[in-house]
Amino acid sequence: MNRDKVWLRSKGPIATLAFIGLAAVLAAVVAATPARAGKERNGEVAREHAQRAIIAYNLGHFDEAADCGAKAALRPNAHVHVLAIGAHCLALAGRVDEARKLTGSILRQVPGYRVDDFLTAFRFTGDAALLVRRGAKLIGLG
């Protein structure tokens, strides 16, 4: 059985709805990302890695979240929010130098991008939002 489905079942209906909401946002972000001809699969792969990163992040598994977030961010034409997922996860895993490199890519795509842009898109609340803000301070998006 898919481990994501096991996690969702174990966390109850509210966590399931929250995950589905995040997955829908990610799908929309990836769909809005311009893809090169014949490279549509890159968007799907980026979305899958980004979803895994958010799941691991929500579980407090920052090393796994950082690995998945970095894989998502390295896909061609990665959307700025996908880059931000990678950067925040890397920062919270203690891989600040790698995260700052992604921050540079984020700011080249969208000068003035801040943590509030990220939180508006993904609607993290409570402790999760505090963690995002802590990561953003580490990488200069705070």
Description:
This protein has 142 residues and is an all-alpha fold. It has a single domain, classed as Serine Threonine Protein Phosphatase 5, Tetratricopeptide repeat, CATH 1.25.40. It is built from 7 helices and no strands. The longest helix is centred in the first third of the chain and has 30 residues. The radius of gyration is 14 Å and the shape is globular. The termini are far apart. The N terminus is likely disordered.
Distance between the termini: 39 Å
Largest sheet: none
* Mean of pLDDT: 78
The level-1 CATH class? Mainly Alpha
Number of helices: 7
Structural class: mainly alpha
**CATH level 3 topology:** Serine Threonine Protein Phosphatase 5, Tetratricopeptide repeat
Number of strands: 0
Compute the gyration radius: what is it?
Answer: 14 Å
Overall CATH architecture: Alpha Horseshoe
Query: What is the count of structural domains?
Result: 1
Taking pLDDT < 50 over at least 5 consecutive residues as the criterion, the unreliable ranges are 1-17
Please state roughly what percent of the residues sit in beta strands, choosing from under 5%, 5-15%, 15-25%, 25-35%, 35-45% or over 45%.
Answer: under 5%
Helix content: over 70%
Overall 3D form? globular
SSE succession? HHHHHHH
